[in-house]
Every structure is written in structure tokens, then in C-alpha cells.
Amino acid sequence: MPRQILKIMPATLALFLLAAAARGQEPLQLDEIIRRAKEKVFPAVVFIKPVRESFEVGDRRKQLIYGSGVIISSDGLVVTNHHVVDKAIEIRCVLSDKLQFPAKVVGSDKETDLALIRLDLPPNTTTPHASFGDSDAIEEGSYVMAMGAPFGFSRSVSLGIVSNATRYLEASPYNLWIQTDAAINPGNSGGPLVDVRGEIVGINARGVMAGENLGFAIPSARVREVIEEIVKKGRVERAWTGLSLQALRDFSRDVIIDRDEGVLVASVDRNSPASDAGLRIGDRIVAVDGAPVQGVYVEDLPAVERQLAALPAGKPASFRIERGGAMLDVALTPDSKGRVEGGDLELSEWDLTLKEINRYANRFQAYFVGKGVFVQGSKPRGNARRSGLRPGDIVLEIGGVPVRSLDDARAAYAKFNALPKGQRKVLCAILRDGYRISIALDFNRESAERAAPKRERF
Questions:
Q1: Which residue among 113, 195, 283, 351 is the active-site one?
Q2: 226 domain residue, yes or no
């Protein structure tokens, strides 16, 4: 093959062709390499059809959504995204042979957007499966294929290259991303990103609809870590410090600190282990339990986040920090992170849904109250909305009864729902933008939708 052609090829493909030539073999054409790689993984691609519960619009609704996955074991373990199976009450999967099987969630991790499900297969049934490759070995320009079921269509494959092998996205604390120009559309989520060897190097998770050829996959190195922990424990355990971190040299924010080690403290959550330990915004953490901390660039932050998350909960850790030019040693005892999203509750007669405040998912509400519930959604012409309740309102009291949990709200709902018609009104104490206000919730009116025969909404 002419050398000038090799110069413009991605390095991975060029090495494949040169290796074939060195063995005295006829170099494979690109389409043959792609075909062989596809044949290794395509039979393991799964079309996933979850039915999930949604509480965002003021009542509980069932939604049929579409996603993708990839089988990684002969007994039917399937990797997909957390957001594909989140709040799923039923999961059905269509395999490459057009057979459909139910599946159940083995474990899910919202913070890396990964989940593991298991197909409910007949006895002695095995499935085709794919193998993981080394995501750390891929580089910009390498050919990759995104496989899945975009927009609910049957399985498909799109070809592209790796645009960036270590893309940092602020909303993802524990991993970098593989950016690719291979088409990733709604429905591709959870499907595999495959290299020319026919190995899984990533799990497709995001696409930018307003952008041009911007797709993102979770690297297989992180996928394997998360899946292995889910298999062992059913969940991913992490420590919580209450720290938010800032790279020393963040060019997008024009933050340049002339240091070659450590990471900056960007914020400290109230009533957190970090605040109890006395850490402050602007401190530079240089070591934790004697291990150096390297957060010079934003691409280094996920590794630092994993370093902190791996600390044993309940055991003091030594943080060496720089503050005002002086070095200090601070003892910080992390908590176990626990659930990262609170539960949901529908109050149908009041036309609203409530959500449990979670210090990780609802940091605004958690800033004002450590424990409680807030209005998640209210129906546009329902009783709660007409009475003045808004999404985001923190519910402090219902009829003089303190509300600190969904169980408290459920009990108050049952009590006041027993009021006779014409007297169905209750005073609620609400915290809105930090101010306590009182709202009279009038639920004498029965909506036409509730009066009509109940039907499932999809």
C-alpha cells in the first residue's frame, strides 16, 4: 500500500495493515476490517424497551422508552445506561435473533450512568456476547463503530473516528469520556462503542442534538470497574466528603495556579465531613493519607474524585493542604455516600408529586433543610397549582403537622383527605427561595381527568 495513503490513515488502522504486510499477507480493505469487527459484537447488541414511572408533571405516569445494551456474558448479563432503566417497572429486551425476553436490574450507578441487567432466559439457554477492549489504548483518529437502536429502530451501526479520547465533562465526576463523530442518537444510549478489533471500548451515553457529530461514550476501563463492583455488591459504594474540586489550571475559566501538584477546593457543602474538618474554599489539597493528589488540569479531576470516593467511610483520613502559603494537616472522616436520589410520592387528589430531598441530587433544597421533601411537579390546572404551590417549594408543614419525610407527607395526605367536601382545605407552610410562606391548599375541586375512568398514560 502506498506510504502516502498510510500517512492519512488513523494510527490503529495503519498498524493493522502494516502488520498484515509484515506477515506476508494481503492487507485487508477497510470494509473487510469493519465487517469482521462488527460480526464479533453485533450479535450481542440488545434493543431495550423499559416501561418507567415518571413523576415530573404532577402525577405518576408510565412511559415506554427505548434504549440499547450489549450482552457481556453467555448467561445474559447486559450492560446499558442508568438513564435507560432508571425507575423502570418492566424491562423487555429484543435480541439479535428477534426473540424477546424480560430482564431485571442487577444494579445501577447514576453517577457514572451505568447499569447491569440480566435477561430472564429459559433454562440451559446461552447468548452471544462481546468482550471488553482497552479504552486506554485508543487515540484520536482511531476508527470506532457506535452500535444500538437509535429512535427505537432495529439494531444499526454507524462508523466514525475518536475525536477526543479523554474528554472532560463537568457533569460527570468519576470518568472522562470518549468523544466520537460516529452518530449517537436517542435510543443509542447503552449500546457499545467498538474498535476495529471487535472489542467494546466504550458504552454510548450522550449525543449533542444541537451540535454536529458530537457523541460521547463511557470508556470501557471505567465500565469494567463499575460492573465488577455491581456484580460483587449489587451497588457501587463511595465515600462522601462534601468537597467540590477545581483544577489548578482551568483554561476555560481562566484559573491559573502556578503549582504542579494538588487540587483546589472550589466549595464545601454545609454540615459535611469537609466543613466539620475545617476545610475552606481556596485550600490546595496536595496529599491524602500520604498519597499525592494530582489535579492540575480538568482531565485529572475524575481520578482525584475516585481517589476521594475510595476512602473508607467512618475512618479519619489525613489531608495535607496549603493555606495562605503554609502547609497544614487536617483529619477528615468521610461518610458513606448512600443513595444519590430520593424517593417519589404521588398525591393524586392534590394534583402534585413530592420528592425526598437528597443532598447530592437536590443541593439547592438541601442547603436550606438537611432532611425533608419538596414539590416535584404539579398539574397545570390542578388543585396544587391553582392554590399557588410551585415545583421546587420545600414543604415544611401540612395542617400544622411537620413534614420531614415522604412518610410524614403520606400520613398528612391520608388525614386531610378524609375531610368532607366543601371543607377540603389545608394550610401548608412552604420554604421558597429561603423565605417561609403559608399557602392554603384547596382541593375541593375534582378535576375532570380524575372523575373520568382511570386509564394508564404512556
A1: 113
A2: yes
- Domain final position from 279, 302, 336: 336
Q: What is the pTM of this model?
A: 0.85
Return the C-alpha torsion angle 151, 155, 161, 164, nearest 10: 60
Q: Specify the amino acid at residue 58.
A: G
Per the listing, cell 450522550 goes with 206
C-alpha cell belonging to residue 205: 451515553
Could you tell me the three cell numbers for 293? 493528589
Q: Is residue 458 part of a domain?
A: no
Q: Is 113 a catalytic residue?
A: yes
Same domain, 184 and 210: yes
Tens digit of each residue's pLDDT (9 = 90 or more) over 396-446: 999 999 999 999 999 999 999 999 988 999 999 999 999 999 999 999 987
**82 noted as active-site residue:** no
Tell me which of 59, 68, 82, 83 is the catalytic residue.
83
- Total length of the chain: 458
| Residue pLDDT, tens place only, 108-136 | 999 999 999 999 999 999 999 999 999 99
Residue pLDDT, tens place only, 160-219: 999 999 999 988 899 999 999 998 888 889 999 999 999 999 999 988 766 677 899 999
C-alpha angle with apex 43: 212 to 80, nearest 5 degrees? 55
Structural domain range at position 378: 344-451
Q: Are residues 402 and 435 in the same domain?
A: yes
Is-catalytic flag, 318? no
Whether 352 and 395 share a structural domain: yes
How many independent structural domains does the chain possess? 3
79: nearest Cα among 197, 196, 202, 167 = 202
